[in-house]
Amino acid sequence: MDKDGERYVECKGTRYALMTLPHFRKFRDLALSSDSAWKTHYSDTVLKVESKPPGDGSTNLNIIRATRIMKNVPPGVLYNQLHDAQYRATWDTNMLEGYNIVQLDKHNDIGYYAVKFPWPLSNRDFCNMRSWMEFTNGEYIIFNHSEPHPDCPVKKGFVRARSILTGFYIRPISGERGTQLVYVSHSDPCGSIPHSVINFAMTKGARMILDNCEKYSERYPAYVAKMYPADHVYPWRTPKMNWDSPYLYPEDVPPNTEPATEHQQPEAGGSGGEKGEGNERSGEEKAVPFLSSNAGLLGTSLPLAPVAPYRITDLLSVQQYRSIMQDAMNTVDRSFLREGRVPTTKEYIVRLKYMVEGIRRTTVDV
């Protein structure tokens, strides 16, 4: 971390600035801003589409914002659906190809996405850094921006497009089961398309994007129940962050200082809904040692391993080592949770040893 609070990681000779809590606050502020520059293009009881020029005058492409009320979609279901590339491939007819290139940390990755454009336009593709975080008040954010990567070269037959800032701000509707989704898009398809045409098309296209988002979120629980086992672990789920935290990530929070809670995986049916809907395991617990003094046998709630605190003086290699060990410990914890028993110290250490050895044999430097 440098003096201004940024955090960086190196990948194949490129230094990337990771998106941390201050960046998520900035995205939330944009999603909720009410300045007079916003122009309304469409509004009804469940949808509002707006646009405004960027404040810095860097481009003639407008920022598009669409706000949608989804009464039958819990926030957690929407969040999981937006992350699930396997599910997206079943319904997104415009997606030509999409895959993850590298995981930078628990909240940032770089991926490739190719999209079909209507004739006679060339198809577009993106190389984006995607960032995500979930919060203790039930809110979630996913956003992306374009970044280069050696394993994501420009492909023949595609125009490399650019995401300046595109993402989703998800929050529960007070007293209801549903969700308010704010979709923000500031993208440049590049090529020779006039900016005035892009601005017009994006204000019209935002409605279709959110229609599909709601439609396929409502169908997602049935897909999960059919395709995933009852103990399926969503790889994008992380501890929850307090918006007012002085830390950059929930994993940085020392144990028992603030509620950076470990996400509880859904029961069979896997809708990923919120607490109190009857489709998640009970509650969110603070991270405390797995082998705690009050751990009992079957029926006892067994929390996962604590998150090691982040220190400003740590080298990047130390941060990476801590992250690897945290993942290994949580994997071992979950294995005993699935078995429904408390291990002996020897059993735990032996299983952790095999896990670390497996990581050592398979890890490739990024």
UniProtKB/TrEMBL annotation:
Main location: other
UniProt keyword terms in alphabetical order: Acetylation, Cell projection, Cilium, Cytoplasm, Flagellum, Lipid transport, Lipid-binding, Membrane, Phosphoprotein, Transport
Any one Gene Ontology BP term: lipid transport
A cellular-component GO term for this protein: cytosol
GO molecular-function term, one example from the UniProt record: lipid binding
Transmembrane intervals: none
Domain of life: Eukaryota
Keyword Chloroplast: no
One protein family per Pfam: START
Domain START, residue spans: 30-222
Subcellular location as annotated: Cell projection, Cilium, Flagellum; Cytoplasm; Membrane
Region of interest (Disordered), ranges: 249-285
Compositionally biased residues, Basic and acidic residues: 274-285
Lipid biosynthesis in keyword set: no
Name by which UniProt lists this protein: START domain-containing protein 10
